[in-house]
Amino acid sequence: MTPAVLRRARPEDEQALYDICLLTGDSGLDASALYQDPKLLGHVYAAPYLRFAPEFAFVLEDEQGVGGYVIAAPNSRAFEDTLEREWWPRLRQQYPDPANLPAEQRTPDQRLMNLIHHPHRTPDALQSEYPAHLHIDLLPRVQGGGNGKRLMLTLLDALADAGLAGVHLGVGGSNKNAVGFYRHLGFRELEAHPWGYTFGMKLPRQP
To answer: Number of folded domains in the chain?
Structure first.
């Protein structure tokens, strides 16, 4: 098989990012059966990065098409402000706010709808020390062979070249492979949560 090509993401890759986000959305496994609306995961965790931070979006492409991506927001707070102005308003018209339902009664779709109406804000300490954040997802066919590491190192170099002090990410505690992958790359645990961990990495300042 021809090795996957790593390249910068393009606007026409958006649907592939939606698809991959869903197909890896259950701690790396296919989440299609969990969600009635197949686009919800991508609305929150994939598409806005390609739209608003394309210089930090990279994909792996093989003969079957795009099979993996890494995406990042270089300044998390600024990115959140951009989404509040330019991304969430349209989606809030499309999806109802489930705030009247207790959290434990919400469906997986409704939990994502809640994030659309009440998005996460990066804590001050993370923003100060690790202002960038990222997401990486690969389909099984492009996993292994160093592809994940290639994507991550490409992104980390781009963030360092942009002068970012550090980068953070969240990972589910049940995703043991991902936890080990991030530790192997040099990320360290910053905080443990009921759902998993926040990891961070300081980036070398470029001249």
So the answer is: 1
68 within some domain: yes
Answer whether 4's CB lies under 8 Å from 62's CB: yes
Residue 36 lies in a domain: yes
- Would you say 70 and 154 are in contact if contact means Cβ atoms under 8 Å apart? yes
Reading the chain (207 residues) residue by residue, the pLDDT tens digits are 578 999 999 999 999 999 999 999 998 899 999 999 999 999 999 999 999 999 999 999 999 999 999 999 999 999 999 999 999 999 999 999 999 999 999 999 999 999 999 999 999 999 999 999 999 999 999 998 999 999 999 999 999 999 999 999 999 888 888 999 999 999 999 999 998 999 999 998 655
Residue 55 belongs to a domain with what CATH number?
Answer: 3.40.630.30
CA geometry: angle 99, 17, 180, nearest 5 deg: 85
